[in-house]
Amino acid sequence: MFEANDSEVAEFVLLGLCTSRPMQLILLIFSTVLYVMIVLGNLLVMFTVFFDSHLHSPMYFLLANLSFIDMCLSTLTIPKLISDLFSGQNNISFKGCVIQIFVLHILGGSEMVLLIAMALDRYVAICKPLHYMTIMNPQMCIWLLVGSWIIGVIHSVVQLAFVAHLHFCGPNEIDSFYCDLPRFIQLACTDTYKLEFMITANSGFISMGTFFLLIFSYVFILVTVWKHSSGGLSKALSTLSAHLAVVVLFFGPCMFIYLWPFPTEAIDKFLAILDCLITPILNPAIYTLRNKDMKKAMRRMFSHALILRKIV
């Protein structure tokens, strides 16, 4: 599948975000700082959950895995962007482009399922608290995690199966800073209208369906809490607001890219930056700043680190 020898195109040129060198230097600093923050912020969440026994629960297990996927999503695209902005070399090999698309859809599909798993966790915790540890046992958490990765792989394979037969013999410029499937397909030497429609149906409608399923589940949780105890509604709303913010940040750009009928280059690039640079740093910030247990755990971890440093 996807042998460069079968076509005349051996590599693609990523046009990036802009052509102005001064602006590229500003973007280089901006993207480098944000990428460092993404890696440190998500690693902090993962290490805190791993080392603090108070956070060994299903919710934080899923949160740590969400941080891992967010960090991987950024690592897949941003280091290449930083390298291109620094060197001015914007080329990517044919196979490198296909691999990037493949891994991108694995991570995106896995995160979709993981967000559903987190919604299930909150439903059980809020609506069935007495059965929480029975339903969300360690085996269930592992199965949810494994299932998310399996579905992510299946989703990515299906996406690439649509374009496995394409040949690329002419233009090789992708107007973005990474390889994305819609722009990749447009460079094929055949009429891709039907293919683009199928890709839109596969990714766009799956994203939209999952988004509305999650919104419905959170609304259902709030209505259930309100019926049983109006006093617990504010607490449930406070807990779910962080989840809702993450869902909107993740699905908003996906639905816009695949379903908006009048795409423009500027909006597409803004959404790409939002997806790869802004959302991955906002997720750990949202969950830590609004979560008392996470803040306490981080303070304990920093205190232990200072004590160990003084001893050494």
Average pLDDT level? 84
Measured between the Cα atoms of the first and last residue, the distance is: 55 Å
Secondary-structure content class: mainly alpha
Beta-strand content bin: under 5%
* Helix fraction bin: over 70%
Unreliable stretches: none
With strands numbered from the N-terminus, the spatial order across the biggest sheet is 2-1-3
The radius of gyration computed from the alpha-carbon positions, rounded to a whole number of angstroms, is 21 Å
Number of helical elements: 10
What is the N-to-C succession of helices and strands? EHHEHHHEHHHHH
Number of strands: 3
Largest sheet: 3 strands, mixed
Backbone shape: globular
